[in-house]
Design a protein that fits this description.
465 residues, Rossmann fold, 2 domains, 7-stranded parallel β-sheet, 19 helices, 45% helix, globular
Length: 465
């Protein structure tokens, strides 16, 4: 199936082709026809599955472009508001679509001015409700999208959402997207949607097939060394490293910078303006590595992330899916790498079972393997290098001082002198040790649970012998 099968407007198809989208993702295949039919819909899909385009494409296709706000998208965070706005603008640019983002901490007057000229408004619940209650805006959208509903529930926005819908017209098409479906979200859906169609992406479809998933088993004290070795060996163009706690993010950021990596930190204690600057720099390529907590990375949508590293594996499978969904986007291939200790192995197997996809166990590359790879990369770089006029002039000068063989050796030494390789040959567990761990946990899982010992509850004898 291709996007052309949806018979969207030529201006939208042109934007799809320009964006490089080839085949629709599972949520897009299921959702787009339903939305185009005019039905209300509940879509259960995780971040990174292409759900923004799943609702944006059909909604854009149905807009009348009458000078009014025809579509309203409600999202949990200002970062997600900006990213959804960018995506809608990109997909609708040949239609002349104008978008307005509405969130707290920004000028009222500027946002009101943008709303006056917009076809689509993307808003966070707090600021939107504030504008509606104060009478500063009146909205009569034909389409309303509630995105990342479960995150809005977690952030305490459920009452605001209910209040917002009291200001909206009843003759609207409403779409709700959520990664999970707790009872509160089901109850909300029953109140704000009319006879909706339910679409759920199954576990097998949750993790993107374009993402290759690997894990490496190490002792706790080897975690930093293992990360450095993997970063050196895989040489990611743009990577996100996930940590569990803010303090880990700061420590790891300082450590990686001291090792010559260009990394940036992102967590909840970072001021909003600085946070926006960090994300902007990472998107522009001013930092090759972003180190973040799960909460700080909510709604983060950067299409060209090549690698995701789990410095610690998350506590639950849903967080794992959210994390690795930051790579392998827009049809590109992605790599997800998890560093685990034997103590975390049980949690890893649980994640593998829940997400329904294979995580491949690998050994950390040895120092010798890394050295060979670096030499190969250097060789490829030298062979592909174009010869400049200045290089010829420099070589002519060198010929007058030393022979060409010595000159070549000196120049090669200059190229490789900053390529440090840790002297420690082996890091982490071997393939054999990992297989033994797997076997051990599989046997434990098969073993029947003990109901308790015969002596449980019996009083100890106090008789002396």
């Amino acid at each position: 199936m291709t996007f052309q099968d949806f018979n969207l407007k030529p201006q939208i198809q042109k934007a799809i082709d320009l964006a490089g989208f080839k085949e629709p993702s599972p949520i897009q295949k299921e959702a787009i026809p339903v939305i185009l039919s005019g039905k209300d819909m509940v879509g259960q899909a995780h971040t990174g599955t292409g759900k923004t385009a799943a609702f944006a494409l059909p909604v854009l296709n149905m807009l009348e472009l009458n000078g009014e706000v025809e579509a309203l998208v409600i999202v949990p965070t200002r970062e997600l508001a900006t990213q959804v706005s960018d995506e809608i603008f990109r997909l609708g640019k040949y239609l002349g679509i104008k978008t307005a983002t509405v969130y707290g901490g920004s000028s009222y007057s500027r946002q009101l001015h943008h709303i006056e000229n917009a076809s689509v408004v993307i808003a966070t619940p707090g600021r939107l409700l504030d504008l509606l209650k104060s009478g500063k805006i009146e909205l009569n959208p034909s389409f309303v999208v509630l995105d990342e509903a479960d995150e809005m529930l977690d952030m305490g926005f459920l009452d605001d959402i209910k209040a917002i819908f009291e200001f909206l017209p009843s003759n609207r098409q409403t779409l709700l997207f959520s990664a999970t479906m707790p009872n509160e979200i089901k109850e909300l859906a029953s109140k704000i949607l009319y006879n909706p169609e339910f679409i759920s992406i199954t576990k097998k479809e949750v993790t993107n097939v374009n993402i290759k998933q690997f894990y490496y088993v190490v002792d706790e004290k080897e975690r930093d060394e293992a990360l450095i070795r993997l970063l050196d060996f895989k040489n990611p163009k743009k990577a996100i490293i996930f940590c569990r706690m803010k303090v880990e993010v700061d420590r790891l950021n300082e450590f990686l910078n001291s090792q010559g990596f260009n990394s940036l930190a992102l967590h909840g204690d970072i001021a909003q303006r600085q946070r926006e600057e960090v994300i902007k720099n990472f998107k522009r390529g001013n930092g090759e590595i972003l180190i973040a907590t799960d909460v700080a990375a909510r709604g983060l949508d950067i299409s060209d992330v090549t690698h995701v590293f789990n410095y610690h594996i998350p506590f639950d499978p849903q967080s794992y899916v959210h994390r690795i969904g930051r790579t392998g986007r827009a049809g590109r291939e992605g790599i997800a790498v998890s560093i685990v200790t034997p103590h975390e192995f049980k949690q890893l197997l649980k994640i593998q079972k829940e997400v329904g996809s294979a995580l491949i166990n690998k050994e950390i590359p040895t120092s010798s393997e890394l050295k060979m790879k670096k030499q190969k990369t250097t060789l490829e770089t030298i062979l592909s290098q174009e010869i400049s006029k200045e290089a010829i002039e420099l070589l002519n000068l060198l010929e007058g001082e030393i022979d060409l063989s010595t000159a070549a050796l000196k120049l090669a030494s200059m190229v490789i002198k900053n390529e440090k390789v840790s002297p420690k040959e082996k890091i982490g567990k071997s393939k054999k040790e990992i297989e033994k761990l797997i076997s051990q946990f599989e046997n434990e899982a098969k073993r029947p649970k003990r109901r308790g010992s015969f002596n449980r509850g019996r009083r100890r004898s106090t008789r002396r012998h």
